[in-house]
Amino acid sequence: MDEKLAAGWVRRWDVQQERYIADREERFDVLIDVVEHVCRDIAEPLVLDLGCGPGSLSTRLARRLPHARVVGVDTDPFLLALARASRPDDANIEYVQADLAGDGWLTWRTIDAAVSTTALHWLKPDRLADVYRRLADVLREGGALVNGDHFYDEQPGIRDLAEAVKGRRAARAGVEANEDWKGWWAAVAADPALRAEFTADELSGVSTGYGNRLSPQEHTRLLREAGFAEVAPVWQFGDDFVLTALR
To answer: What InterPro entries does UniProt report for this protein, alphabetically (predicted)?
Structure first.
């Protein structure tokens, strides 16, 4: 895949993602801060990026932690093609196609950290619990899972308030009119350059169409049951959290 073509679509992906979280770069920074801290004494840490998409977080991780080995895992072939084509030449990043909702995605015996951003909410609760258990088994002591995603408060009034605050922030940031997720995929499917290289199915977007809408409390319960020792949000804006679980 052409590098410039891929880079353009990744930039467009990042812009449409900002429609949903105007503080996306800050969330990335906080997430990577956590990884940097828990891996501060590891010479060559192994970090998994779960549901990596086109590699936006993986690239930032590799830029901040050039001594780390970053492995991005995703099930979507087109997004992985974008990630591979736009990967910086000097970045120690590997991309693997695997389905987190299946059984064969975790092949590493020990990892130092796992990250995810706006991806794990697509997993049904039983599959998410399985992912958490598998990660707890392979994370070294002191390692962390860091998940930046949309979480929903169990209290309806607080949930509505969080959504309103988030909407006001998006309005102030001027991102309300940004292209949405469906619009991005529709544009991908209509691009002649991409249609010449990928099948219609590959350009349709792989999604379960399922948002689990779990609260931070439910995530915390699942993580503790999986074997994580400590769980807490380290950043929040509206219904967006960076939830950290320490092994």
So the answer is: Methyltransf_25 (IPR041698), SAM-dependent_MTases_sf (IPR029063)
